[in-house]
Specification:
Shape: globular
Strand order of the largest sheet: 4-5-9-6-8-7
Distance between the termini: 60 Å
Largest sheet: 6 strands, mixed
Length: 463
């Protein structure tokens, strides 16, 4: 017996005898105008809300050399005044109706996301149009935003390096490759960005032929198509060259970046190598493996390093999967005097997973965990809008979502353990980034490989 629970849901959950709920995306309408802009529209009337996601390619991987953080700066300024509203008036217009609308950058995109009551749809579209077509890009707001980001970086270096460990890790791993760029920039690159850079980036990269707008929620599709088409039909196109992102192979051997933070009472570490891309075919098997290794609170890493050994309060395994192969890493922190003990245990657990894999019982628990967590990520109008935008942006079909539940449920232990050996690096081939008091740990961590050292106060994330 199969039960379909779709009557009042934004996504259709299908319960089958063999596994937890799967997910089937609802119908969406795709419209493309002559200037290239793409609209994805999903009409649902269960709650009076509308979710919005607008996406442009670019992001940190497209930032000019020496000006990391430029695309993120442009994104931040889109919400700092647009049309006839300065930054304060723009924020007040959103707050007055209880909506949300913000912009940001990732490694490969600039995006705008929002959620409004259905009755405020006209305001939502007006604000979105102003952000895209008439941002003020104020020099004064740019300088304030730049100064704030520099201060946040310095505060993180002083107080909580956990926020920066993965940034140092990917920067050291990828170097000059686009995936080594810090999304929000570093102190050095942010200082170089000028108002002219911001305006040039906007003029070259923000245009109709690069834009996907996804809207989901309580509206009539035909009416929304008419409004959006009328608003964006005559908007300009752009031709700024998007950076080519070559595939990178896993790096052989070992090497260490030691980031010196004198007086630190803890060491923060990132251990990894090049992994796989977003389009990796055995995504379900990899997600199961990562969940069991370090992707949930009852994972191998947490059980052994936190619960049993008491070496850390937090440890996880991270998969960065952009268009080309990203990184796979173990991330944690520990007291200074247990630095080597914790790193040794992390490496030994990686080796154990690669050598022994996982048994059927724990694999079954990992499947159930994933299948329980996946549907709630696609419940709201905003979540659906974001998912449809991502599928369009990355050229993925609905099967990327629709077939995921069955792929997870049907993943075999042998295939999962094969994926582990294929994706996770051998202990002989690891890149280590360690943040801590170099005077106290330098000699001990030298056993992991040749050391490159830099001070935590350096205004960048790699030597």
């Amino acid at each position: 017996m199969i039960r379909t629970l779709c009557a009042f849901a934004l996504v259709c959950f299908v319960a089958t005898p063999g596994f937890a709920q799967g997910v089937t995306l609802p119908e969406a309408h795709r419209v493309q105008l002559d200037n290239g802009i793409v609209f994805i529209l999903n009409e649902k009337h269960d709650v009076p809300l509308i979710g919005l996601q607008a996406v442009l390619p670019g992001g940190a991987a497209n930032d000019p050399a020496g000006k990391a953080g430029l695309s993120s700066m442009v994104a931040g300024l889109l919400e700092k005044g647009a049309g006839d509203r300065d930054a304060a008036a723009f924020a007040e217009a959103i707050d007055a109706v209880g909506g949300s609308l913000s912009a940001g950058a990732t490694l490969e995109t600039i995006s705008i996301e929002g959620e409004f009551l259905a009755r405020d749809a006209d305001l939502m579209i007006e604000l979105l149009v102003d952000m895209l077509q008439a941002p003020l890009l104020s020099s004064a707001e740019m300088r304030k935003l730049r100064d704030r980001r520099v201060n946040l970086l310095r505060a993180a270096k002083d107080n909580d390096p956990r926020q920066l460990t993965a940034i140092y890790g990917n920067a050291f791993l990828f170097g000059d490759h686009p995936y080594g760029a810090p999304v929000d920039g570093d102190e050095e690159s942010l200082a170089r960005i000028t108002p002219d850079d911001v305006r040039a980036y906007y003029n070259d990269y923000v245009g109709a032929n690069r834009l996907v707008i996804s809207v989901a929620g309580d509206f009539v599709v035909a009416d929304m198509i008419n409004v959006l088409s009328e608003t964006f039909r005559d908007w300009r196109t752009v031709d700024g060259p998007l950076a080519a992102v070559p595939a990178t192979e896993p790096q052989p051997g070992r090497r260490v970046l030691l980031v010196d933070k004198p007086g630190a009472t803890q060491s923060y570490f990132w251990i990894g190598n090049v992994g796989v891309a977003r389009g990796y075919e055995q995504r379900a098997e990899l997600d199961i493996a990562n969940t069991l290794f370090g992707g949930r609170f009852t994972s191998m890493l947490v059980d052994e390093m936190r619960t049993n050994a008491g070496l850390t309060y937090g440890v996880f395994s991270a998969l960065l999967r952009p268009t080309a192969p990203g990184s796979v890493a173990t991330v944690s922190f520990t007291k200074t005097d247990t630095t080597v003990e914790a790193i040794d245990l992390a490496v030994s657990l990686l080796d154990k997973m690669r050598t022994e894999g996982f048994g059927d019982e724990i694999i079954s628990s990992g499947k159930n965990y994933i299948l329980g967590q996946f549907p709630p990520r696609l419940e709201t109008a905003a979540q659906l809008a974001a998912q449809f935008a991502a599928l369009e942006t990355y050229g993925l079909g609905n099967s990327y979502v629709d077939d995921y539940g069955s792929a997870v449920a049907g993943a075999a232990g042998e295939a999962i353990n094969t994926v582990i050996k294929e994706v996770y690096p051998s202990p002989a081939d690891l890149v280590f980034v360690i943040i801590g008091d170099a005077e106290l740990i330098r000699e001990d961590v030298a056993k992991y490989g040749p050391i490159t050292e830099m001070p935590m106060t350096a205004p960048r994330f790699r030597p």
